[in-house]
Amino acid sequence: MTPEEQDLVMGLAVGLGEGPTRTLDEVLAHFGESDGGALALRLLRDAMECQDADDVEMALIVHGAADASVEEFLELLIELFPAEWHRDHEDIVSMLGKLHSPKTVPTLVEATRWVPEHLDFDECRALAVKAIWALGGIPGEEARDALKGLRDAENEIIRENAVKQLARRGEL
Question: What CA–CA distance (Å, rounded) separates 125 from 91?
Fold first, then answer.
């Protein structure tokens, strides 16, 4: 994406105390698309091919502005999550959590164990906590077993959140 296109997409984002300065229709028209989900998917694929962290962020902004389904993004998000060249790991975990899909369990478990370099400062382990809460919303044995395994984690925050999710599910 050009810097001008990034500025256009950033206009869709809601800032502190400000609403969007652009409409989705303006962005779609610029990119020659009629569907926000399709544009977000195209932009995400392009960003992954170029390994451009800023463009990943732009694709996710378009996705959110279009209120697009996450279903179509499942495989790409699973592939993108462990890449160290971007900064959107928390957003990816949040998106995967909306799916409540057993397919996401391995990625969410990875998110509880791995701390990307850009989140190394976070002693509260927000990425892991988001992943644990996402696991808590997934029905089935695989998610339950993952949460049970996290009860024994070294990190107290991870242990406590795993126990909370197991209790919420009635599986303690």
Answer: 14
| CA distance to 9, 39, 84, 85, 143, per residue, from 49 (Å) | 19, 15, 14, 12, 31
Distance of CA 105 to the CA centre of its chain: 14
Backbone angles phi, psi at 46, to 5 degrees: -60, -45
Q: Could you give the CA distance from residue 74 to residue 102 in angstroms, rounded to a whole number?
A: 11
What pLDDT was estimated at residue 163?
97
The DSSP symbol for 100 reads T
- Provide the whole-model pTM: 0.90
Which tokens go with 48?
A: 């992954």
Which residue pairs from 161-165 have beta carbons closer than 8 angstroms and sit at least 24 positions apart in sequence?
Answer: 161/128, 161/129, 161/132, 161/133, 162/132, 164/136, 165/132, 165/133, 165/135, 165/136
CA–CA gap between residue 24 and residue 17 (Å, rounded): 20
Residue 120's pLDDT is: 86
- Amino acid code (one letter) for 7: D
The distance in angstroms from the start CA to the end CA of the chain is 48
DSSP character for 113?
H
pLDDT tens digits along 133-170 = 999 999 999 999 999 999 999 999 999 999 999 999 99
Structure tokens at 172: 């303690």
Say if residue 18's pLDDT is above 90: no
